[in-house]
Specification:
Elements: H1 5-36, H2 38-60, H3 64-88, E1 110-111, E2 114-115, H4 117-134, H5 162-178, E3 186-190, H6 197-210, E4 215-219, H7 220-231, H8 241-248, E5 251-257, H9 264-279, E6 284-288, H10 292-299, H11 301-308, E7 311-315, H12 321-337
Parallel strand pairs: 3-6, 3-7, 4-5, 5-6
Antiparallel strand pairs: 1-2
Helix pairs in contact: 1-2, 1-4, 2-3, 4-6, 5-6, 7-9, 8-9, 10-11
Bound molecules: adenosine-5'-diphosphate, magnesium ion and zinc ion.
């Protein structure tokens, strides 16, 4: 899994809170039970004493086996007495233990160096939340991608209609997401505003996250600003943290290429990220409103022909769905008023 570092940091924080909570609650139960049943506290002291004694005899080494057996017997008796007390008062056996959310890893997040299922689920949840803070993910799924917005108008120089073409684009994206791997190609989603490029890239992102991959979705203007800040923030020779994340995540989605404020630095940075990912076979999805000619004008022939040669191009056609939806809403509001 290759989620962004901040996703893991956040997950560790949550795990730590879970552990703390379990242990605080344990303390409360203990204190209450000792008040109710003072003998229990004596038993726990004695048990703690036995652990110390066991540790000492290990260090001491003399007649080890006998000593340890003796201590184990004592400890078992005490444990049984404690259990009997708990039962007598109607509490479960684990009443004085911490109640972790995940008993398997005791809320540590890994077992013998392997990531626990609870941690995997948590990381996925955080990655979703992060994406969600950019755009309401629940609205941008394959299921909510309606083909009725694309009319049966024949596309020039093609056998297909807009509707038929977008049907193939949707099918392609669904297959892409379902079969995503580090061998997947990179994609260029191209077409005018409001045709569903962001919608479909977020739908792909959700599916690919679901399958356990690390996905970073960024809008190019935002990320360029952030990288510039990190780069010119004084640490000249150090590569910014974000840049490493962007080059190393399993799938990078660069939305709205061409709408960023352009300088030599930003153009070079974007190129480096895309190029590095291609060289290390890390798939990237780029969306843009620009035509090929416009891209060449903005970024130069060399950069564009190198990138384009390695991308699968998907052309989005139709008319602005954002506006169509607005009109639909107005109409339905009017109907309810009438
Ligand atoms: N085929 C579609 N079915 C339903 N909603 C769509 C469709 N395409 C786009 N939308 C919605 O229209 C709006 C604009 O689409 P978006 O994907 O942002 O366009 P683009 O990125 O191509 O400019 C979004 O709210 C999106 O969810
Ligand atoms: Mg968009
Ligand atoms: Zn766990």
């Amino acid at each position: 899994m290759g989620y962004g570092k901040e996703v893991y940091i956040r997950a560790e924080e949550i795990m730590e809170k879970r552990r703390q909570f379990a242990e605080q609650e344990q303390e409360k139960r203990r204190a209450a039970f000792y008040r109710e049943c003072p003998r229990a506290q004596e038993i726990e002291y004695e048990l703690a004493g036995i652990s110390v004694a066991a540790a000492k005899s290990v260090i001491g080494g003399a007649n080890l086996k006998n000593q340890i057996e003796e201590l184990m017997k004592k400890s078992l008796l005490l444990q049984n007495e404690l259990n009997a007390l708990l039962e007598l008062k109607g509490y479960p056996k684990n009443y004085l233990e911490p109640w972790y959310e995940c008993e398997k890893c005791k809320d540590i997040g890994n077992i013998d160096g392997r990531i626990c299922g609870c941690m995997k689920a948590l990381v996925k949840k955080i990655a979703y939340e992060q994406l969600n803070s950019i755009s309401p993910l629940s609205l941008c799924t394959f299921e909510s991608f309606a083909l009725r917005y694309y009319p049966e108008i024949k596309i020039e120089h093609s056998e297909k209609t807009q509707h038929g073409h977008m049907q193939s684009v949707l099918n392609f994206c669904m297959k892409y997401a379902e079969g995503f791997s580090d061998q997947s190609h990179s994609l260029l989603l191209q077409g005018g505003p409001g045709l569903g490029k962001t919608h479909l890239s977020l739908a792909i992102a959700q599916k690919v996250i679901d399958r356990g991959f690390g996905v970073i979705y960024v809008s190019v203007p935002d990320i360029v600003m952030q990288l510039e800040k990190e780069h010119f923030g004084g640490r000249f020779d150090e590569k910014g943290e974000s840049e490493t994340l962007l080059t190393e995540c399993d799938l990078l989605i660069l939305d709205d290429l061409g709408t960023e404020f352009q300088t030599k630095y930003t153009v070079a940075t974007i190129y480096n990220i895309i190029n590095k990912r291609m060289l290390t076979s890390h798939p990237t999805i780029i969306s843009t409103n620009l035509t090929l000619t416009e891209m060449q004008q903005l970024y130069g022939n060399r950069m564009i022909s190198r990138i384009i040669g390695m991308l699968d191009r998907l052309e989005f056609v139709g008319s602005d769905i954002r506006q169509m939806k607005r009109r639909e809403r107005k109409k339905s509001n009017k109907n309810t008023e009438d």
